[in-house]
Specification:
alpha/beta; about 25% strand; globular
């Protein structure tokens, strides 16, 4: 199956701190790939290096066969990005920001359909600054999907959402996956990871601890569920035990 994303030997340090250390993985077309790890494990830096926002010291990245730094313009139409923290203009409305994003692309998705799918149609005249945290989070996913991308990066996509809203987002993403969308996501919700991800990579101190299917990751651990397996791989289990 065709690789949409290939990361080969990616490394990034900040002074003496090695944030990402020799990261290798490939993501196939139509796959949902989870990049996991506790805060500070290297997830955000990895994604920023993959997207060319941060400059890696070593390694190569290819997105749809292209270099994310030198081929940035060509990839603009093909990649969607949702970061956990996003700043918006103070007085811009939901409709205005969607129309603006829509106008930047040659073959965008229907932004009104996306607002409806994410339960935001009734808020189109609302200023973004007056949205709740969960509503802003859903809007950030909508904006990442407006380009009608072939690959989308979703950073903690359902943080702040209630259980029904989370499941609605999952269902919509599953439909997009069936149409061939490739997704790289980060999440601290293991039920979300199990529901969406085909394979996962768990990072610890910038290094890959395990990379496999969810079922295989659980099987290789001493536990029989993903949450406890994740804590064991990432070292958070030890930290939790020390706090008691």
């Amino acid at each position: 199956m065709k690789n949409v994303l290939v990361v080969d030997g990616l490394s990034k340090a900040f002074g003496q701190v090695q944030a990402v250390n020799d990261l290798h993985f490939a993501v196939c077309k139509g796959e949902v790939f989870g990049l996991l790890g506790h805060n500070g494990a290297g997830k955000s830096t990895s994604i920023e290096c993959i997207l060319g926002v941060q400059k890696a010291q070593r390694g190569t990245v290819r997105i749809l066969g292209m270099d994310p730094v030198t081929d940035r313009k060509q990839l603009f139409e093909k990649v969607g990005v949702q970061f956990q923290e996003t700043n918006y203009q103070a007085k811009i409305t939901v409709e205005e920001i969607c129309r603006l994003r829509h106008s930047l692309y040659r073959h965008p998705a229907d932004w009104e359909e996306l607002l409806s799918a994410f339960g935001l149609s009734g808020l189109r005249k609302q200023t973004v600054s007056n949205l709740s945290g969960g509503e802003r989070q859903r809007l950030s996913v909508v904006l990442a999907l407006i380009p009608n991308p072939e690959l989308v990066f979703l950073d903690e996509l359902t943080t702040g959402l209630d259980p029904k809203a989370r499941r609605d987002v999952w269902k919509y993403l599953e439909k997009l996956k069936e149409k061939g969308l490739t997704i790289l996501l980060t999440s601290h919700y293991m039920d979300e990871v199990e529901a969406l991800c085909d394979r996962i990579c768990i990072l610890k101190k910038g290094r890959t601890v395990v990379l496999d299917t969810v079922a295989s990751v659980i099987e290789q651990s001493p536990y029989n569920n993903l949450e406890e397996s994740y804590l064991w791989y990432s070292g958070e289990e030890e930290t939790a035990n020390e706090s008691f």
